[in-house]
Amino acid sequence: MNKGWWYGVGLLVGLIILILGQMPDERIHLVVCDVGQGDAILLIKGSNQVLVDGGPSQEKILTCLEKYLPFYDRRIELIVLTNTDHDHLAGLIPVIERYEVIQFVTADGVRASSTLTKLREILIEQQIPVTGVERGQKLRVGRVGEESKIELEVVWPRETNREYVAVFSQQMEKNMREQILGASAKEGKVNERSVVLLLLEDNRKILLMGDAGDQTEKTLLELGGLPDIDILKVGHHGSKYASTLPFLERIKPELAIISVGKGNRYGHPTQETLERLERVGTEIARTDQEGIIEVNF
Q1: pTM of the predicted model as reported, rounded to 2 decimal places
Q2: Which end of the chain has fewer surrounding CB within 10 Å, N or C?
Q3: How confident is the model at residue 174, as a pLDDT?
Q4: Rounded distance, CA 121 to CA 143, Å?
Q5: What's the pLDDT at 5?
Q6: Distance in angstroms (rounded) separating the CA atoms of residues 150 and 265
Q7: Residue 36: left if φ>0, alpha if ψ -120 to 50, beta else—which one?
Q8: Integer Cα distance of 123 and 130 in angstroms
Q9: Distance between CA atoms of residues 254 and 236, nearest Å
Q10: Could you tell me the strand order of the sheet in which 255-258 lies?
Q11: What is the pLDDT of residue 148?
């Protein structure tokens, strides 16, 4: 047999090994991508995937997806944009260009920017509708009864202004869109309109806080019903205005993951936040120190 035949056999064997190594399993995989000063969280179970935010870097989010998604799977079942700040939004643009996106949801934490304009154009071009979500809604990926389904509960915001969400649509006229974005900018507090999600998986509870801070935490405590949390994705990258002591004492997280850029100009995570987490006995993991953080169960 000639060398070409053996070369072909070697390629085939290598391809089979690669495919088998990337075969999905029925565990939930929580992947906090290392995207610098921003947020991008990937949830994987079986062949279902949910991406929460995309971070500020197009290259870093694509690198993370290429590492954790099978090369033959070019579909993301759900994208959640927690708010429209650049450090959550920008990386979603190349993701939508390269992957088939089935659902895209967000809330009314909108802020005008060239990045938002570009994202809107891509969503319209790919014919991906944007849906607003609010407290109490369930986001389900996968069929009912399917072992690999993923279910998330929307914890915040309490209510979503659908008119604000409509800025993503093709039907809204430019003048109206500019008026809404202007009104949103005057209201401020975009972080406190972040989508907050709770993942329930085999009695494990994961709370993803987006950029939500002390005001949101106070209201959630007043509303009640917060369970003890196994894993907390810390709000607003460890800002001192998030992860308040009363909130942490109520949810009692076993592990807190902070998505943050090395040497960032904001000083995140702040010493105040780290001390509060330590005070309630929470283990801390940080992307600026460990890179990508993956938890499987």
Answers
A1: 0.90
A2: N
A3: 84
A4: 30
A5: 53
A6: 36
A7: left
A8: 8
A9: 19
A10: 138-141, 150-156, 196-201, 204-208, 231-233, 255-258, 283-286
A11: 79
Task: Indicate whether 22 pLDDT > 80.
Answer: no
Using CA atoms, how far residue 86 sits from 94, 102, 119, 141, 254, in Å, is 14, 23, 11, 26, 30
Amino acid identity of residue 264, one-letter, is N
Virtual CA dihedral for 141, 146, 150, 152, nearest 10 degrees? 80
φ, ψ for residue 168, nearest 5 deg: -80, -15
Instruction: List the single range of 3-7, 157-161, 238-242 with lowest mean pLDDT.
Output: 3-7
User: 54, 88 in Cβ contact below 8 A?
Assistant: yes
Cα-based distances in Å from 205 to 197, 198, 237: 10, 7, 20
Per-residue confidence (pLDDT) for residue 170, from 0 to 100:
84
Q: Going by C-beta distance under 8 Å and a sequence separation of 6 or more, which residues neighbour residue 270? A: 238, 239, 240
- Distance from C-alpha of 85 to C-alpha of 90, rounded to nearest angstrom: 8
